Amino acid sequence: MNTGGYPHLGSWGPRARIDCQAISHNLAWLRRRVASAGTQPVPRIWAVIKANAYGHGLAHAVAALQNADGLAVSDPHDAYHVRSLGWGGPLLLLSACGLEVDTLADPALGELHVVIDDEYQLALLEASRLTGRGLHVWLRYAGRLGSHGLRDPAYGRAYARLQSLQRAGILAQVGHLHHYASAEDPDALRQERSEFAALVGHHPGPCNTGNSAALCGAAPEALDDRTQWLRCGLLLFGASALPGVTGADLGLRPAMSLQAPLLAVRHIRAGQTVGYGESFRTQRDTYIGVVGVGYSHGIPRSLWQHGRLLAGHGGRPVPAAGRVAMDTLTVDLGPDAPEQPGDVMTLWGQTAGGAHLPVETVAAACSTIAAELLTSLTARVPLQADS
Ligand SMILES: *Cc1c(COP(=O)(O)O)cnc(C)c1O
């Protein structure tokens, strides 16, 4: 089933297998972790599914996240898509940038929450006639991220204007939203938190915070009773946001396995080169495997220097060898290679035999982060739910 809506390639191309049960498992893991903080009431969880559910496909994610308290998306098209997939719970639009008032007013979007980032968006809200719509608004604190949101004194003035819209019955609720800049660093996170606490100390109302790095670190222990909602994306797909720690280390299950067929096995003599730029020269006679996936599918070219793939069901680790090309890449299978054309190669995730190559490890080999790899797969990679 190709619910990502992508054109289907021939059997020689790559495919991303999506394990919906892993996503449900990771949400349950997160709930236990949040509940263990002991805060009353227990904060609710926004499952963030922007960027096509971190590359996993909105339909797969919505099916797997039925137990979330709300779903968060970054653009109105996704909001409509999520409703068309049958999601009846709260929806959070992570930005009002470029948003039309008609969208906010549309009853078809059900319980809608929206993040307000600046005075322009605020003025748009004030000029609209949303009475009776029951819109929930979260004002974003600029904090250390600085790319969106306001800080005092502008924050306080904007919050007061939102409160008067609430008193006038135009908004159902207003609250405070904080998005961390450096949640993977415990000291920086502590400081970001105390700055936000100082800000909201002056203003009543619920808070909406969190991200994966904060939630897999010491975060839940630091919650307070005003934290009504926590937002989380990456963790739900089984990847960790902390350097040097994988999702599997934390007890999460990877939701995506990227696989491609071995197209050819070629004998190469010692001293010969493979690939563009003659960048890989073998020191010994060996077998080179040609794998049916390349940069046109979203594999970074930088994979070739330090990357590994898992060969076959057993998942024998083999190093990339030579530059990643548009539709193929090459691996060094070694002089005794047992692999045959047609064998499955795993770029990240799990093999049929249960071997596992964490996407975080592949990301480190490419000097990037797991979220970039997962969301960079192109429309040429079909997303197939495991049955
Ligand atoms: C993407 C995003 C999140 C989720 O971040 P993760 O690190 O993937 O958990 C939370 N809040 C906002 C505002 C976001 O843009």
Quaternary organisation of the protein chains: single chain
CATH topology of the largest domain: TIM Barrel
Low-confidence stretches: 1-10
Radius of gyration: 23 Å
User: In the CATH hierarchy, what is the superfamily of the largest domain?
Assistant: Alanine racemase
pLDDT averaged residue by residue:
93
- Helix run count: 13
The N- to C-terminal Cα distance equals 10 Å
When the domains are counted, the total is: 2
Residue share in β-strands:
15-25%
The CATH C-level class name of the largest domain? Alpha Beta
Ions, cofactors and other bound molecules: pyridoxal-5'-phosphate
Question: What distinguishing features does this structure have?
Answer:
single chain, 387 residues, alpha/beta, Lyase, Ornithine Decarboxylase, Chain A, domain 1, TIM Barrel, 2 domains, nine-stranded mixed β-sheet, eight-stranded parallel barrel, 24% strand, elongated, disordered N terminus, binds pyridoxal-5'-phosphate
Question: How would you describe this structure to a colleague?
Answer:
The protein has helices at residues 20-35, 50-54, 58-64, 76-84, 101-105, 119-127, 154-167, 186-200, 212-216, 247-250, 303-306, 359-365, 370-376; strands at 15-18, 44-48, 70-73, 91-93, 112-116, 135-141, 171-178, 207-209, 227-232, 256-268, 273-274, 280-281, 286-291, 308-311, 316-319, 329-334, 344-350, 356-357, 383-385. 28% of the residues lie in helices and 24% in strands. Strand 14 and strand 15 (316-319) form a beta hairpin. The chain has 387 residues and is α/β, with parallel strands linked by helices. Helix 1 (20-35) packs across helix 3 and helix 12 (359-365) crosses helix 13. It contains 13 helices and 19 strands. The protein starts with 14 loop residues before the first strand and ends with a strand. Bound molecules: pyridoxal-5'-phosphate. Residues 48, 50, 94, 179, 211-213, 231-234, 241 line the site of pyridoxal-5'-phosphate.
